[in-house]
Amino acid sequence: MIEVFYPLLAHRWGGVIVAGFLVLAGVFLLSWARRSKSPHKGLGKLLAWIVCGGAGLVLAGAVVSLAIVAYQGSKHPPPGELIDVGGYRMHILAEGDDRGGPTVVWIPGAHSQGLAMYHLHSALRGEARSILFDRPGTGWSDPGPFPRRTAVEAVELARLLRRADEKGPFVVVGHSYGGLLAANFARRYPEQIAAVVLLDASPPDAFVYAPVYGAGELRDLAGQAEREGLAKLVGVWRNRDDAIAESDTELGEVLQRQRNVLADVGDAMAANRRRPATSFAEASIFREFGAGNVTETAPGLVVYDGELGDLPILVVIPGEGAAGVIEPLGLDEAAAARARNFFERARVRYLAVSSDARLIHTPPGTGHNFPYETPDFVVEVVLGLLEELRGAVAR
Questions:
Q1: Confidence (pLDDT) at 46
Q2: Which of 135, 237, 262, 392 makes the best surface tag, with the fewest CB within 10 Å?
């Protein structure tokens, strides 16, 4: 139900507008209580004052939130350009010379802002044209229309590149959930694509058919994002990742590693995350696989076997199986074996989309978040592909 209100809640003045509606509701109740002859009008009057008091708290929190976001925004202006893509703007950071070869477009996992791959971008921009961008609602981009959907974001990316005057062909590199967008972008605009690099990309199968996690995990993530968005809206949000990063857990270790490699842009990323739009855009894209949505969106979301023809596709995955993903779940032996089998096969699902799909394993000991564990390896893979593509053009 709350998804209907995402456009309002993601708006810069969303909290103030919500407070205004609450004030109107309180005034209406108070007016009714004063005119009513009902024996319950005293209760109505009490409820009216409670609503008005709540509106005052929401308004105060919303003003605090607006002030914090504005202050942080002034400290961290966009490093690239804001490009109009149809009534709303998307942020793009394009640096480096293409050296006669393709331009690289990075797409981070989850629904993260472009800076989540800044460490890879900064390592490559001296060797090739490299692009980071913010999906609508993330980073410095405007919220854009709702609901957020992968097919929509593929079209938005094409429009952004065209209006920013970035010429293809492109090598699109997507990690995890970002790999799903990379594959969809390639399917829709094959004439603009030189190759695709999928860094343990998420196939739709992993959410629709998974014996663990699956759509239920995305539903939980969407709910968590909604709660964070509401907290941001009224100025009481605290970044839960701060406590997790300091914890002695596997997830804490992952977050700390990410923060270490992204230290140069960490403050800007933290400032961008304070925007309520970030959370509601994230919630919306995760609800794409929700009940009542996936049956409608799947045909435009799935990249079917052979659909990318002979386009070079690098499927880069950890080589040690899915045990590291499954073991922490505490499943019984039969369930764990079934889950391992599913995830190990789902990881290579994209090998079927092209006749020139190639499997590459990451260094031993690395897992799903290898772009942060071994960034040099990722850059080496992309540079090797660029050298191959430049050689093909020269011939």
A1: 83
A2: 392
Q: Where are the domains of the chain?
A: 2-75, 81-211+297-394
Q: What is the pLDDT of residues 37-77, one digit of tens each?
A: 777 667 777 887 888 888 899 999 999 999 999 999 999 99
Contacts for 243 with CB less than 8 Å, ≥ 6 apart: none
| Domain spanning 81-211+297-394, CATH class | alpha beta
Name the stretches of the chain with pLDDT < 70: 1, 40-41, 328-329, 393-395
| pLDDT of amino acid 170 | 98
Residue 393: its pLDDT value, please?
Answer: 64
What pLDDT does 394 receive? 59
Q: In the 3-class helix/strand/coil scheme, how is the chain assigned residue by residue?
A: CHHHHHHHHCCCCHHHHHHHHHHHHHHHHHHHHHHCCCCCHHHHHHHHHHHHHHHHHHHHHHHHHHHHHHHHHHHCCCCCEEEECCCCEEEEEEECCCCCCCEEEEECCCCCCHHHHHHHHHHHCCCCCEEEECCCCCCCCCCCCCCCCHHHHHHHHHHHHHHCCCCCCEEEEEECHHHHHHHHHHHHCHHHEEEEEEECCCCCHHHHCCCCCHHHHHHHHHHHHHHHHHHHHCCCCCCHHHHHHHCCCHHHHHHHHHHHHCHHHHHHHHHHHCCHHHHHHHHHHHHHHCCCCHHHHHHHHCCCCCCCCCCCEEEEECCCCCHHHHHHHCCCHHHHHHHHHHHHHHCCHHHHCCCCEEEEECCCCCCCCHHHHCHHHHHHHHHHHHHHHHHHHHC
Predicted pLDDT of residue 194: 98
Question: What token pair was written down for 80?
Answer: 């690239």
Longest dimension (CA), the chain: 90
Q: 210, 342 in Cβ contact below 8 A?
A: yes
At residue 190, the pLDDT reads 96
